[in-house]
Every structure is written in C-alpha cells, then in structure tokens.
UniProtKB/TrEMBL annotation:
Organism: Williamsia maris
One Pfam match: Rossmann-like
Domain annotation DUF2520: ranges: 148-289
Annotated coiled-coil segments of the chain: none
SUPFAM superfamilies linked: 6-phosphogluconate dehydrogenase C-terminal domain-like (SSF48179), NAD(P)-binding Rossmann-fold domains (SSF51735)
Organism domain of life: Bacteria
The protein's name: Oxidoreductase, contains short-chain dehydrogenase (SDR) and DUF2520 domains
Domain Putative oxidoreductase/dehydrogenase Rossmann-like: from-to ranges: 11-131
C-alpha cells in the first residue's frame, strides 16, 4: 500500500481541513491546525454540544454533512469513537466525496492505516495520527498538544513525512508506530492513563473515609464534591511518584511492598476490606504486581495470595 496523488511534498503551508466530527479530540486538533495557518473549512457536528464546541473552538468553520465536509477538504481528519470508525470510513468511501490526493488521517490509537483501506483504494494518503493525551473539553486540550507525542502510522516514507510535518506544526512530537503494534501501543497508554484515574480515585475515596468525622480544630475538610484535604494530601505524593517512575522505572517503588513488610500490608488489607471490599481487592492485585518488581519475601506473597 502506498500513498498516491500527492506531489510537491512536504505539505503546503495552508491546507483546507475538514473534521469528522466535532468531539473533544477533533476540535482540539482543528484549533491546533488553525494555529499553524491551516484553515478548518467545515466540520461535522450533529449534537447541540458538538455545535457549541465548534462555536467556541472553530467559530469560522461551517457545519456540514460528512460528504460535503469531505468534498471540500485537502486534509480530512476522522475523529470519531473507535466503534464508529469502520462505518464512517465505509460511508465516506461509498459516497465518492473524498477526492484522490486527499490526506485522510484518523485519530484512533488502536488502529493503523489498514482500517482506511476503502479510502486508500480511492487514491488518498492514509495516516493514523493519535495524540497520546487525555482530553477534558477545555482550552487546555489544545495547549497540551504542544507538548504531546503523536503515534504516527503511514504507508510509506512520503506518508510519514506528511504526518510528521502536521504533528510538528501543531507543536507535538511524532513517534512512528508499526501497523502491527498499534493495539499494544494503545493498550499501554490506556493502562497507564485510564487506570491511573481509577487508582487515584480509589485512594481519594479511602482518604475521605479515613479523615471524615474526625476533623481537628483548625483543620478544614472539604466534602467529596470539591478539592480539599484528601487532594492536598495525595497530590504531592503521587506527583513525585509519577515523576520518579518516569525517570527511574521500577526502582522508584517505595513503601511496604518494596520493603517486604508483610505485617503492614496485611493491616492495609484488613482495614480496606472493612471500608470497601472492592478497593481492597484492587490494592491486593496491584500489590502483587508491585511485588513482581521486587525480591518479595515468601511471607508477603502469602499475605497477598490469600
């Protein structure tokens, strides 16, 4: 599979961009591309929330049906949920609206360019451009792209040059990902980011249980709907742990599991089971995984396998 219909690369300074559709990722990328002097001419936005997002982030873009967006675009960004990607690609290919020579990039982490085959057969340049970043629907989404790595998969060196140029123009760092490695690449990112959210949420829940109802004079405890003492306690600790892990890997592990302290871990499990059995099971599973990075004594493993 090769790129076709493209001449005079690298890409011209200004491309007419179309986005399908106006979700958090698509509009963040659109704003970043406009900051690099490309023009987002049209966007698909079916819901009122999506239309509001376009008005806020891409106020000069037209809202049009997918076929009209595709027909107007030199760069077509398909940014839809993974389970909709195949259907959207098939519809665009069947419509005949995508012109040969169009750069078509999707943003799904787990897929490379094979999923774009129906469009590639029409003469487009296929790209997979996945920003390794979480998106929360604020202006920070676009700002963070300036320090974000993008997983780039392309058909050939021309495609990689095009994809890398677009990423660099948005302020990101292009990282080549092999077609066959896309799912593992995405699983690794999801494991680190999504499970971190669950882990920290569990820790905050346990802290709220531990601290509520026993406030000392002068100690303000904020309820669960606002940032307060639990967040202030945990924030510096986990921020330091994350930075240490990025720098040192498993050598950053500290605490009772790293020390092989079976008694302390058993105590943790006992109180966690009383507070929240599900949280206790997560702690046990994660402790077993942490122990695999250490020379854990048999006594600790025995506690964790009960």
């Amino acid at each position: 599979m090769t790129s076709s219909g493209i001449a005079n690369w690298p890409a011209p300074a200004r491309l007419t961009v179309g986005i399908v559709s106006a979700g958090r990722v698509g509009t963040a990328l659109g704003a970043a591309l406009e900051s690099a002097d490309h023009v987002v001419g049209a966007v698909v936005a079916r819901s009122s929330l999506a239309r509001d997002r376009v008005a806020r982030r891409l106020p000069e873009s037209q809202i049009l049906p997918p076929q009209e967006v595709a027909a107007r675009s030199e760069l077509l960004v398909i940014s839809v949920p993974d389970d909709q990607l195949t259907g959207v690609i098939a519809e665009l290919a069947a419509s005949g609206a995508v012109r040969p020579g169009t750069i078509v990039a999707h943003t799904a982490g787990a897929h490379g360019i094979a999923i774009l085959a129906p469009l590639t057969e029409l003469g487009v340049t296929p790209l997979a451009l996945h920003p390794a970043m979480t998106f929360v629907d604020t202006d920070d989404d676009t700002t963070r792209l300036r320090s974000t790595c993008f997983g780039v998969t392309a058909a050939d060196e021309i495609g990689y040059a095009v994809g890398s140029t677009l990423v660099l123009e948005m302020g990101g760092e292009p990282v080549r990902v092999r077609e066959e490695a896309r799912t593992l690449y995405h699983a690794a990112l999801a494991h680190g980011a999504n499970h971190l959210v669950a882990l920290i949420s569990d820790s905050l829940a346990a802290l709220r249980i531990a601290l509520s109802g026993q406030e000392l004079p002068g100690q303000e405890f904020i309820d669960e709907n606002a940032a307060g003492l639990p967040e202030r306690l945990l924030g510096p600790l986990v921020s330091a742990a994350l930075q240490n892990t990025l720098e040192l890997g498993p050598r950053a592990l500290t605490g009772p599991v790293a020390r092989g302290d079976a008694v302390a871990v058993a105590g943790h499990l006992a109180v966690l089971r009383e507070a929240d059995p599900d949280l206790a099971e997560t702690y046990r599973t994660m402790s077993l995984r942490a122990a695999s990075y250490t020379r854990a004594p048999a006594a600790l493993i025995e506690v964790l396998e009960r």
